């Protein structure tokens, strides 16, 4: 039974005939009933469904980084949805050995914006630690010594992430992360980005490569 909330011309909620009324992000929405198809999906449809789930799951795992990195693009949608739309076209690579799609980690972005990316950024591993480093840059409106660096480390086997938001300023030129002991011998993918000192503006995230812990 549908419930009229503001008279006969107002919005309604629940089911009314073939329609469903609900509120989504503060907006009254009416949708039709969903009908489950009995047809077997085509290969193209199956690939699309698989890609959708693959990217969505990855972005949910790194959601903390995405929420700040794509905040300015989340107009009428979540930051994760904004990141999904931006990344989808370049998010996948076909594994010829298995014939399945995988996340194209070097192409992924968890942040976008005007703040200048790190110069000659690198990551190295030693004695269970990841060391991030970058070179000094001339200051400008979008490149300040006070810009704050964030780091993201993703483990594809465990499907877990380690992240440090606004951990150190641009002037430091180095940051070290102590990795969990049980990560030893496992591959991780490393990213970093800068944001303004007040946190209101973000920069593009950069992929620094994969390393074995």
Please outline what is shown here.
By secondary structure, this protein is α+β, with helices and mostly antiparallel strands.
Strand content: 35-45%
Which range best describes the helical content: under 10%, 10-25%, 25-40%, 40-55%, 55-70% or over 70%? Answer: 10-25%
- Name the CATH superfamily assignment: Immunoglobulins
**C-alpha end-to-end distance:** 57 Å
Report the C-alpha radius of gyration, rounded.
22 Å
**Corresponding CATH architecture:** Sandwich
Order of strands side by side in the largest beta sheet?
1-2-3-4
What class would the helix/strand composition place it in?
A: alpha+beta
Mind summarizing the main beta sheet? 4 strands, antiparallel
Low-confidence stretches: none
Order of helices and strands: EEEEHHHEEEEEEEEE
| Morphology | globular
Rounded mean pLDDT is 89
